[in-house]
Every structure is written in structure tokens, then in C-alpha cells.
Amino acid sequence: MYILGISCFYHDAAACIVKDGEIIAAAQEERFTRIKQDSSFPENAIKYCLHQAGCKVADLDYVSFYDKPYLKFDRILETYISFAPRGINSFMQAIPLWLKEKIWIPNLIKNKLGYQGKIIFPEHHESHAASAFYPSPFQEAAFLTVDGVGEWATASFGTGIGNKIKIDYELHFPHSLGLFYSAITYYTGFKVNSGEYKIMGLAPYGSPIYVDKMKKHLIDIKDDGSLWMNMDYFNYCTGLTMTNEKFHKLFGGPPRVPETLLTQKEMDMARSVQEITEEIMIKMARHVKKMTGMKNLCLAGGVALNCVANGKLLKEKIFEKIWIQPAAGDAGGALGAALFTWHQYLNKPRVNKEESDSQKGSFLGPDYKDQEIKEFLETHKIPYHKVDKKEELIEQATDYIINEKVVGWFNGRMEFGPRALGARSIIGDARSSRMQGIMNLKIKFRESFRPFAPSVLNEYKEEWFDIDVESPYMLLVADIVKYKQKPMSEAEIKLWGIDKLNVVRSDVPAITHVDYSARLQTIHKETNPMYHALITRFYEKTGCPVIINTSFNVRGEPIVCSPIDAYKCFMRTHIDYLVMGNFILSKENQPEFVDEINWKEKFKLD
What we know:
Elements: E1 2-7, E2 14-19, E3 22-28, H1 30-33, H2 43-53, E4 60-65, H3 69-83, H4 88-100, H5 105-113, E5 118-120, H6 124-133, E6 140-146, E7 153-161, E8 164-172, H7 177-187, H8 196-202, H9 211-217, E9 219-221, E10 227-229, H10 245-250, H11 264-292, E11 296-300, H12 307-316, E12 321-324, H13 331-345, H14 370-379, E13 385-386, H15 390-402, E14 407-410, E15 424-429, H16 435-443, E16 453-457, H17 461-464, E17 476-479, H18 490-493, E18 517-523, H19 529-542, E19 546-551, H20 563-572, E20 577-580, E21 583-586, H21 599-602
Parallel strand pairs: 1-4, 4-5, 6-11, 11-12, 14-20, 16-18
Antiparallel strand pairs: 1-2, 2-3, 6-7, 7-8, 9-10, 13-21, 14-15, 15-19, 16-19, 17-18, 20-21
């Protein structure tokens, strides 16, 4: 039995296909269209999923859409009516899109796919809950889903037992932790629905001086983690912005203009909203534990991508074990919708093993065989060196990293979700004090304050990081262990803001954030044997089982999917070597590359 899951029309459209309850393939539409967070109907992702499963549309038994469009439309209409006549401009922009396309999802699916079968519509937070519980290794668990907004719900919790999930309680729009975080994202000059992780990275540079003001005027937090937001300060119910003039007056001026100089104010705003988020998530978790009595917790929804809050939640030890959906945002709704149909709607049993999840390392996207890569290289007359033996390839790539070269690593099936996990990654030497600056400015074309994540062999994680659980999906933050840290001098401690960036804080400075933390990924031989072999060889040569892992893309573009995407990114940046399958490309051997994008102009680079 084949079930196709679909999410689209808000942000981060995606598709997933499940065969007899097994996740066969899943991918975001952005990877194929090259449009960051593409929200359009995921035709390309669907085409890929069908191809990977070896089936046609006619073979599909069910299609499942990740939310209920009519219920969402009801919320939008009711919100505009309750605030009328405010919001008329926003109303005139939103309603035609709904009347033309968004509300007609059943017809759209049938027409786009040529599909005549049954379509299932779980609620948005049911899809999140299904994506959290069903792939998890737990037979019983509580779940907590927190995001911006679905239909009406902005957070929910309940239980999963066997093959059934049940939502017990919900928090409703407009009161939303996700939208509160997005409002601060907007005010500090970053893009909503994509810049939130920048706020998380900026927070350690600031002080939480705005927490009291936020709690006094903007948000009332209850003991159970529920919250009430004062809508006098927010504009997202009826306007085209997140905050309004009253908000701007409260914090001493208008929102920061994007791409302008960051000030201490933005750093302090980031730190303040991050601390409030952590407080709410911990209170929510305690309440969920109290109400459900479960020993395990599953997380999903966009807020579950806040790995700093996840790390703090883990340290509280409220639950014995926590599992977080790697595609926790709306993309993961496609996966959740498909699994919801199989287990909840069709009442099919789960066969998960207690010792591992069923997400397959989240390597659910396309892969490219050596023959396909070779055809691409030779068609475009691209110089390359083919390495026949895996050991030789690993040896060469390891030496590049040791010699402080930056390597594009393109191997196996592409990751599903926002994190690069060792299939579409840019990698480098975490021991290098130069590498963070090189990668941020010359390769990623992004803000200098942004930290890089480490990949560490799972066997050695506790020797380097203050963590005793696996983190395969890069969704937990932990501190560097004390004996690997380097103390700061009095002068370094007094440094202001971004000036803290260049202080060497540990034996692996390139992945150590200014608060001695790191968003780590533990590497497992079972799910990614080539990447594990690479880091193992690096460890054998250096005594360090940690390398830098950042996503294979530049700012503003999706992670690369195909060989041509990888080659373009390689040539547009200062990446030294590109390893694709068994092929190695050296930058110095490449012909002149004529690029259609002026990157210096695009990102205002010197």
C-alpha cells in the first residue's frame, strides 16, 4: 500500500511516500526548484518520491494533506472579522489567494496529479504529532508540538500509545510561542520563517535585559507553559508586519533594517526572547509530564528546531528520553500526514524497534550513482580525478581537512529537513582558529556571528561534549567539556558583542560558540558509513574525532540536491575541493566559471 503525504502553501513545501508503513522517500520542494523555502505545490518532490518508490500515481492508495484548509480559512476569516475594519489591506491580499487556490486543495491534488482516490486531511498539529511519535523508537510517549500556527492550534500535547495518537490539550491563535519568536526575528531585521535560527545563534552575544519588559507588556506566561500575548503590540493578525508602532515605541525605535550593522540592542533582544522560549518550553514539558505520566517525550513543530531550548530541556531531565523529528517544521507535516493515514486512519500496527527510530538517519532524498556523476562531469567537460577505492578517497579527503582546506562533501541520499547531516555538507577542521571566519565570509556569504556545528563520532561524544545521549539530527546543544575549554583572560571577558567572536575558547575553536556551546551531530556507522569512515580516519591521524559540518549551500539558497547544484556552489565560493561520490574536483584545476549571480553585490560584500 502506497500513501503520499503532502505539505504546501505556507512555507517549506514537501512530499513523502510511505509503503506499507515504511518511509521510502521524503524531500522539500525547494531542493528541486532552488527557491529557498518554496511553498508552492510540491510537484517535483512528489515526482521524486514516486520514482524512488517505483510507483505511479495510479498505484497510490491514499493521498494525505498535512492540515485542514477549510478550518484554516475559517480562522483567517474570523480573525479579520474580529479586528475589522483594521486589516483591510492585508485582507485584500490574502483572500484572493485563498479563493483562487488554497481552499481548493482536493481539486488541486486531483488535477495536478491526475489522482482520483481518497484524500485524508489530518489537522496540522495531528500531522506534527504523527511525525514526532510514529518514527520515534518509543512504544509509548507523550508528544509536544509547538509552532507558529496551524488551523487554530499553536501548540498541543497528548500521548502516543502503540499505533494511536491523541491530542489532549491545545493552545490557540493568536497566542503563540512561535509567532512571538518570529516577531522578535522581524524586529531585529531578519526574515520571518527562516531567520529564527539566526536569533538563536545571536543570543549568546547579548544579555537578557529585555525579559522583564517583555513579560510586563507583551507576554504573560502561566505555570503550565501556556501563554497570553498582548495583541496591542503585534500586527500579525491583520497587518503585513509582525510588530506595530506601539511595539516599536516600547523598545525605542523601528525594526532594524535588514543587512545593516548589528548593535548590542539586537543581541540583547535575541538573548531575551531565547530565555523566554526556554522558560516556556521547560514549563510546558513539566506540565506534559504531570498530565500524561509518560517517561518519554517526542517533539515537533517549528519551535522544536530550537536546539538550544532542546538542550536545556534535556538537562532538566523531566523525561527519561526525548526524540525530536528532524524535519520538525512544516516539511515534516508531509511525513506526519502519511504516517497518520497508515496508523491512525487505517489502524495499521507499528513495528518500530526500541533501540532505533524509523527515520533512517533522515537520508530520504535523492542520491546519484557514480555513472550519473561521471556523465555530468564529462558532458560539461569538468576536470576531475576518479578514486576507485573507498580507502583512498577517505585518505585524500582527510588530508585536505588536516591541511585546512574546505571540502564540499556530496555523498549518498540527500537529507530531509533543514540540517545537513553528512550527505550534502561543507566540512573542515574544527581545530583551526581561522576556519569559522573563512567559512562564514568566503564560503557561506553569511553573517560573521553565526556559529558552525560539529560532527563527532558517537563513540567519543562524551569525551568532548557535556552530553550522554545521541544527537544524530543536530537538534541538541551541549557545552564543550571543561577540560577541552580554554579560559578567557580578563581583557577577553570584557570584550563587547561580536568582538568576542575571535577568542579561541577550546581545542576545537571553529565549532565553539561564545558561550562554550555547540550544536552537535553524533555520527553513526549504521546510517552514514562513508561519513563515519571519514571522521574515523581524521581521528586516527589527529586524535580529534570532531570536524566542522555546515550545510552545502550559500546564504539565501537551499541545500544542494544534484551534481550541478553542488558544482555551482563549489565554483561560486572558496571551497577548495569537491568530493562527489568517488570523484574529486580541485578548484585550481577548474576552468573559468561564468556565474549568472553577482554574489558580492547580492550580499554587499567587500
